[in-house]
């Protein structure tokens, strides 16, 4: 068994890092030793992905590796942080070298694409689950939080919604072509790190859409002490969503499906043009979907019409302690 | 289910933190925002504790909470870091409020005792497992690593060995009195943070003893490119160990049992008196158990006599990627 775990360990030893990665000591000692930059806040988050709770156990291992990192990086995006480092804790019943090689390829590829250095972690026995801790940096005055929304501001989302739930629905129907745009959205979400950086100084509040638009908007409203009116017809729907699910289910997926990993932000109307220009520079749309007001709750949607909408993790929602 | 998870969330919302905790934004947003101190290295590590792999599922929840944090803090101790912050990722099949309250009490008590601020985490469905990410700080020139040992130096350990394996053996025999010193050693290990700080500038290499003395010494020897001779008769045995296991098994437990969370260090003989004085100030002994030399491997012990010794995690050893 030990030799098999040595195989695992080798899959997660990253390439030599450049000095600007700020890694004085990386994988292989009791701790990694990192060099945070002066004057920055350290932004940290952890997300755990459990097989059959957060992703299908039969999903391609490369996608599982990508996705486990992506959902954590999405939290850095939501606070406007620049990603720097991550730790990866993997539990699996038995080491499977082919699976691990694919998993590691997906994980490392997203590390490389985003400039995130894997600096440590552990591999243990147990049911298949991956916990990824991410660390990034953001200047104190530019950090985005959930609590800054004010009445009169616009509510906007990056990219398109419903793809996560749409992809899950397709997966459950047997679709296995990862090139399908909805399946790609579900299994290989793209953390909106560039959007988070672009919205620094423009957004007044932000959150990533992991639990579903309504649930995540509710978190912002509660933290900010405000309410909202949504315009469901303005929701930007993921490519292929209506064709796959039909109009009604597509709208429900966008409102409550979760797993989209887009950013939901509030901002004054006067900043909308600048925000859209900056997001266009990183290849993303920014759609206005409603307005912040003073009346508690979310108006404009019939909550009962989306109640009972299930996504994969619905029986065990992820909650932050 | 959501309301039950809200109960969980409440258990992990810590008390208000003082400004010196360096927490600009704590539990409850997408990321925590922290203020590292200038000129320090950020030391980070994650350890996952899985029920029935790393601890008995029937262990008292308060001890499980303590232990999950302690094993991660032990990594900070091993590099001589001062503990600052942690993230806690808990998976469990069904929320059990009484269990969670006890678990949280154990976790928070060790946070308070060590000055570690819980700044975030997540709670998900899945088999019972706890991943704890710890973050601490150490001046660059004072960080202890595994790679600094040189031939001619002494090998020493803090405290006493074999208590982890001895406690597990007692647990498996049905002992349930957590006041028993061996059971306390196994279920409520004390991370040697003060010892790690005290050994800054004195130890040339360090590691915490989680996998067993021989295995962890081997990590130091490999990282440092040296060998060692051990003096088994010099091993400091945990209180009650010989009485519980007998002489032979006590020695094997100390050599290979693991789960002790003492520090193993190397240091020049000329620094021994100072090191012992500093450790005495924090209530710990420092026992010389051997010497570093140039011959590869570990001399002085009959490896075959300890081969096959099992501890709880033996079938799925924890390995760092």
UniProtKB/TrEMBL annotation, chains A, B:
Provide any one GO MF term from the record.
Answer: thiamine-phosphate kinase activity
Catalysed reaction(s) here are: thiamine phosphate + ATP = thiamine diphosphate + ADP
Binding-site residues, ATP:
121-122, 146, 210
Where the record annotates domain PurM-like N-terminal, the positions are: 28-138
Task: Give the EC number(s) listed in the UniProt record.
Answer: 2.7.4.16
Binding residues for Mg(2+) 5, per the UniProt record?
Answer: 211
Which pathway does the protein contribute to? Cofactor biosynthesis; thiamine diphosphate biosynthesis; thiamine diphosphate from thiamine phosphate: step 1/1
Q: Where does Mg(2+) 1 bind?
A: 47, 122
Q: Where does Mg(2+) 4 bind?
A: 30, 45, 75
InterPro entries assigned to the protein according to its UniProt record, in alphabetical order: PurM-like_C_dom, PurM-like_C_sf, PurM-like_N, PurM-like_N_sf, ThiL-like
Read off the Gene3D superfamilies from this record: PurM-like C-terminal domain (3.90.650.10), PurM-like, N-terminal domain (3.30.1330.10)
PurM-like C-terminal domain location, by residue?
151-299
Miscellaneous remark of the record: Reaction mechanism of ThiL seems to utilize a direct, inline transfer of the gamma-phosphate of ATP to TMP rather than a phosphorylated enzyme intermediate.
Purpose: Catalyzes the ATP-dependent phosphorylation of thiamine-monophosphate (TMP) to form thiamine-pyrophosphate (TPP), the active form of vitamin B1.
What's the protein called, per UniProt? Answer: Thiamine-monophosphate kinase
- Taxonomic source organism: Billgrantia gudaonensis
């Amino acid at each position: 068994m030990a030799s098999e775990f040595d195989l695992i360990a080798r899959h997660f030893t990253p390439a030599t890092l450049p000095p600007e990665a700020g890694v004085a000591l990386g994988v292989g000692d009791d701790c990694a030793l990192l060099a945070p930059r002066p004057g920055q806040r350290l932004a940290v988050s952890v997300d755990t992905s459990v097989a059959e709770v957060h992703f299908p156990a039969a999903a391609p291992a490369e996608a599982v590796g990508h996705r486990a990192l992506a959902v954590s990086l999405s939290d850095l995006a939501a606070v406007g942080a620049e990603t720097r480092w991550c730790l990866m804790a993997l539990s699996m019943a038995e080491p499977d070298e082919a699976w691990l090689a694919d998993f590691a390829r997906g994980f490392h590829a997203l590390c490389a694409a985003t400039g995130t250095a894997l600096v440590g972690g552990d591999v243990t026995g147990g049911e298949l689950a991956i916990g990824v801790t991410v660390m990034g940096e953001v200047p104190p005055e530019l950090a985005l939080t959930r609590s800054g929304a004010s009445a009169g501001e616009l509510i906007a989302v990056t990219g398109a919604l419903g793809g996560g739930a749409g992809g899950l629905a397709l997966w459950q129907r047997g679709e296995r072509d990862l090139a399908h745009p909805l399946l790609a959205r579900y299994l290989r979400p793209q953390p909106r790190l560039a959007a988070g950086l672009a919205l620094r100084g423009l957004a007044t509040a932000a959150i990533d859409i992991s639990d579903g638009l309504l649930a995540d908007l509710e978190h912002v409203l509660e933290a900010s002490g405000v309410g909202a009116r949504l315009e469901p017809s303005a929701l930007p729907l993921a490519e292929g969503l209506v064709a796959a699910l039909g109009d009604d289910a597509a709208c429900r997926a966008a409102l409550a499906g979760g797993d989209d990993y887009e950013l939901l932000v509030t901002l004054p109307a006067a900043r909308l043009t600048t925000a859209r220009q900056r997001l266009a520079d990183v290849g993303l749309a920014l759609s206005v979907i409603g307005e912040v007001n003073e009346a508690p709750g979310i108006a404009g949607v019939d909550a009962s019409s989306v109640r009972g909408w299930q996504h994969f993790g619905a029986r065990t929602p992820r909650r932050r302690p």
